[in-house]
Every structure is written in structure tokens, then in C-alpha cells.
Amino acid sequence: MIGPKAPRDPEEKRKSFYIMRKKQVAGSPQPDGTGVQTIYLNDGRLSSFARITGAISDEQILELLTSASGFRKLVYSIGVSVESENPKETVDFVLQMYGRMEGIPGTCHRVPIRADGMEYMVKLSDIEWKDADAVPGQMRFEFQKADSLAVVSVRLYLQDGFDAPEPEEDGEVNFDCPEYEKMLEKSLMQKGNNLRLKRALEKARRGEDVTVAFIGGSITQGAWAIPINTMCYAYKAFEGFCALAGKGTDENIHYVKAGVGGTSSELGMVRYKKEVCQEGTVIPDVCIVEFAVNDEGDETGGESYDCLVRRMLQEEKKPAVVLLFSVFTNDMNLQDRLRKVGEAYNLPMVSIKDCVVEQFYQKPGQGRVISKGQFFYDIYHPNTNGHRVMADCLVHLFRTLDSDKPDEEEPDIRKIKAPYGDEFTDLQVFDRSCVREDIFIDCGDFSEKDTNLQSVERDRNSFCTPEFTENWMHVKGDRPFVMELTCSALLIVEKDSGSPAVGCAEVFVDGEKTRTFDPHEVGWNHCNALICFRGLEKKRHHVEIAMRPGDEDKEFTILGFGYVE
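Below the sequence we write its predicted C-alpha cells.
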């Protein structure tokens, strides 16, 4: 199976309303043995659904729903969920427009939906619309077998500028039941050596300063926890650590959150010094690492993750490192790859996949505590409930290790062979703010500073802070960015973008072209780490970054570098 990949541009939360909400449907038998449930939308039916189910009273919205052009003007995406007795089956959701003239068909868009109760998104921008479209015609749920039963919901997410009443929340999750405790027990993949975590808790209880840090992708950033700064799993787990130590969150225990959406541990190696250690002013006593749904795009296939973890473990302060494996709605993550790092270094490991996935497929009252719809906000991110589950899993680990007897000794990390490699363990980082006598820089036409940057909510902040503000931006010209430094490997951090104003750049090392950087491969505004070269002789190298021929009048932003001396 294909592993998870970090999402592209995360969809913003939009106003929405239901036109169907947990409605039972049945697949009427068809000649070929399949089943179809049709819901007609024409002749004012769609507006009626909006009034009755969605509590819509805005006449402008109701009028827009009566035409195909109005529908596209109003609706950004359609959220569809299907839940059946067989949650692994696939049901086709079909949206059909009726044409202006008889015999001229309108758009008919088909999307396969897993019947697991999760909301799946159908973006209208992904549909090839026909000029003949006149009015919304019908929705269909097409089952593989006749007489199939399911509970379905359909929600319309609105374009910017439109408003709707807030939909009612899903049912409450019983977090106090014995079954939930069993879920938390399943999340504990490996206790690992407990000495470092016990030492951190003892320091906290004595009133000494202790820092608990989190690094990862958008889930660590807090995506779709509401509010993001205090209901995200990182902060709730931090609160749990403080409570276990008998301290308040504003006393001697400090909190660092370094989550950046769409980024892998390859960039995490660079961000660790900058955002977790805050340029050497902070070394965490406890660090939770969460990249299990972002690392499919890691060029090194696990070595970046290995090096990040190994570097943390080798800090003089000897922080406790906990590996956290989150999960996508398709039940996938990379824990089978990344757990090898935890096994090699005997680290505590927590699996959200092991906690929730099995019970997703149980019936309510027969083992299911929380459904996919109650856990996830979208196919990538947990909602507030999901963040709570993740935090509870971590706190369960803290409590378990705290109550266990101390291990006799901890392993000497430097004597353990890195399972994936350790080339980047001692990665050094620099950007435009650094003045280094041993690094020569001539920025050429990469002389501007980019201010249109990916921004994230750090630490306890509810506001966003831009990433990599000390950068070099090319706007126009053919003069390359030139640097000379002594190293054996070099990473660049560049800004990805979907803008047509952005071009491609090429890197030359000692006169030889090594690769081309195309910011459109990911296609949204975020920071991305890529390898310029690795495994070369440690000597002084001459590096040039130049715009690709034909792109001299386009933009390209170098956010920073990482290198191995």
C-alpha cells in the first residue's frame, strides 16, 4: 500500500450547512444487482433541504441553490459521509446537473466514498463542469449490492463571503468508560527506557526548570483543535505532564510547540535548533516527535528521522525522547518504518493508530468508543476530540513510566548503530542573519527578503508567526547566489508556491549541476527542505544557485541552509 503523504494546501475551515444529516438510505435494486438511492435536487428541493436540515433563512443563498451557476458561486466543496455495516466497502457518490435543453446532458461527477462514517471532501474546483448545466439535478448513492443500507450526511461548504449557522456538533464521546482506558493501553507501543522521563518528572517536582517540547507537522501545530493553542494535543499533554508533577502550567515547567504543516523530519532536522532549541537558548527535558503522517516525502527514507532523534538523545542535558505516531483516516501511517528508530534506541513509543483504528470498525455499544467522524476533522487531521485522545495517550505513557520501577541504566546512544544512518546528526544551520567568517556569501540577484511566508501558531500563541524570515529572495536578474563553505553535505530550505510568478532554480556544486528545484511540485506556500548534495569529501565547496534559463524574471526564495561539516 502507498504510505501517507503530507497534505498540500490545508483547506481552511469554512461556513457550512447540511442538506442531509445522518439520513438512512437504501440501495434500490438495479438490473445488474447493484443498488441506487437517488435524492432529487431540482424544482426547489435543494433549497428546501437547506431550509429544513441546514436552518438556512438567507434568501440569497436559497436562490443561488436553484441554478447550476449559483450553486458553483455559493459552494466551495461538498462533504459526504457514508456509514454502513461494512465500513470497508466503497459507495459511489454521484452529483448530477440537469442540462438546459432536453437531450443535452449536464455534468455528472462520481466519487468513491468509503462507508466508514468519515466525511470526505469533493471540491468543486476539481470537477469538469459543462456549459450545458442548468440546475442541480440529483445526488445518488450507488452501492455494490442491492438493498444495502447506510446512514449518510451531505454538507455544503461555502465560498468566502457567505455565512451559515454553525452545524450542531456530533454526539458526545464517553471518555470515562472502561473501553476508553483499554484504548489508551493499546496506544502504548513500547515503554522503552524510563530513566530520562523519570528524571524530568523528579526535576519538575523539586521545582527546577523543566521544558517539554513538541516537534512535528500540522497535527502538532494543532490543526483543527478549537482553540488551536489550548485544545491541541501538545498543550493538553503538557497540562497532563504538569499535573503529574504536581505543578501548574505557569510555574517551573515550560512549553515549546514547534509544529509546521506539511513538513517532514527532513525539515525537522533544521527546525530543531531554530524552533525547539531556540538557537541554543533552550534544550528540552522531554521532547515528543510526531512525523508519522508527514515523512512519506522524506528523501532519505528514514535517515532524517533517525538523525533528528539521535541528535536529541545526544544532547548534554539527556532529554527524554518520545516517538508519537499519528494516523490518517485511511488507517495509514509510517509507524512500521519509524518504530525501528525507537526500537534501536529503546525509546517510549505511542501509536494513535493502535489506539483508535481497530475500534473504529466496531458498532456503538459493542466496542466502539469514538467514530472516525468524531475523531477526525478531515482526512488528515484530528478534531478537538481527536487531539484529546492523542494527549490522553501521551499522559497514559507518562503515568505508566512514572509508576514503574526505574530501569537500571540507560543505553549509550553513541555506541548504538543508527538503523537508517547518521550522516545528518550534527547538522549545522544558517540563514541570512548568520555572519560566519568561514562561509562566503554573494547573494547576487537573490537580494530581496520574502515576507509572504508560511506562518504557524507556535507555543501557546493563537496568532501566527512566519517561518524563516531571514531569507534570500530572487525577483529579477541572472546573477546567481554564490557561497563557499567546508562541508560534506548540504541541504537547502526553499519556499514552495503555487504562484505562476515563481520559477525554478538550479544548483551547481564545484561547477557540476546537481539538481533543479521546482517550487510548484508541492504547489502551496510552505517551507521545504531538499538535499543539494551529500556524501562528498569534506572540503571547501563552491556552490551556485541560479534561476533556470527562461526563469530569470521569476521569483525564488532561499529560506536557509543546513550543512554537515
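The chain is about 20% helix and 30% strand.
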